[in-house]
Amino acid sequence: MIEATQKIWHNGRMIDWEDARVHVCVHALHYGTSVFEGIRCYETAKGPAIFRAKEHIRRLFDSARVYRMNDFGFTEEQIVDAMRELVRVNSLKSCYLRPVVFRGYGDLHVLPFNCPVEAYIVCWPWGAYLGAEALEKGVDVCVSSWARPAQNTLPAAAKAACNYMNSQLIVMEAAQNGYTEGIALDSNGYVSEGSGENIFLVRDGRIYTPPLGSSVLPGITRDTVIRLAAECGFELVEQLIPREWLYMADELFFTGTAAEITPIRSVDRIPVGSGERGPVTKRLQEAFRSVIDSGGGAHPEWLTFV
Ligand code: PPE
Questions:
Q1: pLDDT of 36-87, one tens digit each?
Q2: What's the CA gap between 55 and 289, in Å, rounded?
Q3: Residue 127 banded pLDDT, cuts 50, 70, 90
Q4: Shortest-distance atom of ligand 1 to CA 193
Q5: Please, what is the average pLDDT of the chain?
């Protein structure tokens, strides 16, 4: 269950958790008209800091722009400031932040223009996403029978609620078959991403990840890992990944705000490499942690202190 906090930000005002309610006729509930973000605020050596706040909020506005919802009366800077204030008023050291922008109460027609755009930011404490042990031991996953949406159907680069109906098909199938997560292919059969994570593969010391054209969300953690990999001296290639490479990889890992960097230890019951977290995955996890724990390290621009 979500752990309630005291305040939620709504259209520029702090309201009580219990008062953040909507009518059953809001457009978003019927037609999926919602875009959102998932952001972590970490406890660091220099105090609570929101990880890559600007990049997440830029993506929120990008997503909103695609669905013609970006003129809701606030700038990107104002939303970043609102997140800082929200963490402060809720007196949290670390949490997950969920800005959500959606079409509210008005008409119930598919054409949404008569429905006002509402913006909320919620935050609450959140631990490890794929289980407490996952960051060290890894997770068991399957290749999903569901594909990610094809190009020019539902835009994968927009973090829209409707995309998560597809994610739910992927993760429900995986869970009911005893796996932690599913890896979806794109409509051409190449590896795309997990239901809520980007994916990376390691073979002979070189790192691979699917290109953005493979129906993947342009993950902020994906970008973080691409940069850290270069700084650690790893070669990294963005290229189409055939399904069978998943079974030949030395290492596989997921990236995401919630999942952070989570090793994958088997795919379709075939062990990945030795079946344990590999050295490249571990090295990248350490590089990631050191930025956060130190309060910025080599990347002070990635942290927004609350
Ligand atoms: N792909 C998908 C489909 C996705 O949902 C996420 C984040 C990512 C990739 C990684 O993106 P980023 O967080 O920017 O590195 N998934 C979010 C939602 C998870 C949820 O359960 O809700 C998240 O990790 O916050």
A1: 999 999 999 999 999 999 999 999 999 999 999 999 999 999 999 999 999 9
A2: 19
A3: confident
A4: 1
A5: 97
User: Distances from the Cα of 10 to the Cαs of 52, 76, 155, in angstroms?
Assistant: 22, 15, 27
Task: Report how far residue 138's alpha carbon sits from residue 249's, in angstroms, rounded to the nearest whole number.
Answer: 14
Burial tier of 183 (Cβ tally within 10 Å: 0-12, 13-18, 19+): buried
* Candidate of 129, 217, 225, 261 to mutate for ligand 1, largest count of ligand atoms within 8 Å of Cβ: 217
CA dist 252 and 264 (Å) reads 5
- Alpha-carbon distance values, 246 to 129, 157, 172, 261 (Å): 22, 23, 21, 17
Measure CA 35 to chain center: 12
Tell me the C-alpha distance between 164 and 240, whole Å. Answer: 23
The predicted-structure confidence for 21-48, as pLDDT tens digits, reads as follows 999 999 999 999 999 999 999 999 999 9
* Its pTM surpasses 0.90: yes
Residues annotated as catalytic are 159
Can you tell me the distance from the alpha carbon of 108 to that of 26, in angstroms, rounded to the nearest whole number? 8
Report whether residue 222 contacts ligand 1, using a CB cutoff of 6 Å.
Answer: yes
Confirm or reject: Cβ of 182 under 6 Å from ligand 1: no
Q: HEC profile for 155-183?
A: CCCCCECCHHHHHHHHHHHHHHCCCCEEE
60, 79 Cβ separation under 8 angstroms: yes
Distance 223 CA to ligand 1 centre (A): 13
Instruction: Kindly state if the Cβ of 221 falls inside 6 Å of ligand 1.
Output: yes
